[in-house]
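Researcher: Good morning. I'm working through a list of sequences from a screen, and I'd like to move beyond sequence-only analysis. For each chain I'm collecting a predicted structure so we can compare shapes side by side. This is the next one on the list. No need for commentary yet; just the structure.
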Amino acid sequence: MIELLITISTFSSMVLLFKYFEIIRVNNLQAITANYFTAGILSILNLSFNIKLSDIIISISPLFLGLSLIIGLLFVITFNFYAMASQNIGITPSTIANKMSMIIPIIIGFLFLNEDLTTNKFIGISLAIVAIFLSSLGHGKIKLKKNHLILLSLLFLGQGIADAILNWSQNFMINYQNMNLFFGTIFMSAGFSGLFLIFFKLKNKKMKIKFRNIYWGIALGIPNYITLLYFIKSLKSKLFSSSEIFPIINIGVIVVCTSLSIILFKERVTIHNWLGLGLGIFSIYLILG
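Model: Good morning. Structure tokens for this chain:
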């Protein structure tokens, strides 16, 4: 249970940092790239002292390396989809598409990981999806064009596939010895992908490097590493199945972030937001019941 609480806490701190980035006008791409390199370095520094070079060589199979690189690439692509969707469509539909992507790893858990689907769990997961939708709604109506649906679908698929691959990997490939090696590969590949995008924008004179973007990215990288570490540990603890953990974390993050946004940023919360929060808490009760 402590792993879940740490995951929700650190994930929430990342969300609030992103909100603060918007206020102080931090460049997201530069910060997120620095964040990935920071998380990658922390992963490498936290490699088990007992792990042998031969164990590392055995761990780095084509599948191990390939999946970690794919996840890292999806992290960067999904982030850019989210940024594009937020700017061109709005934060509300982008957040909904991002959070709803938990459906994909949940389905993978039922189909390929032999997780049980009880009546309570089915109702709880269904209510969690409704709760995420209600909690993510802003003050206006959502009006989508056809090209907007394509972008939101790519965001939904990108995040969902990344989470599904991560869930499968922790079941069949990742152990406590090679865990940080896997994380390091994910974060470093994401970092170099982000660096490529930065160089492309620098070449086209669409961006300037600012040091404050880097140190805010470093600040983001620390909870990012801790979040992934304890997320995998919560999945490996087997206290809850992955189909329970994904909605618990998503709803938990929404509850924490909404509460802190009201306190720190004086954010207004609508009736359907409160309804979503209440429904989310009830859905967790059903999932765990």
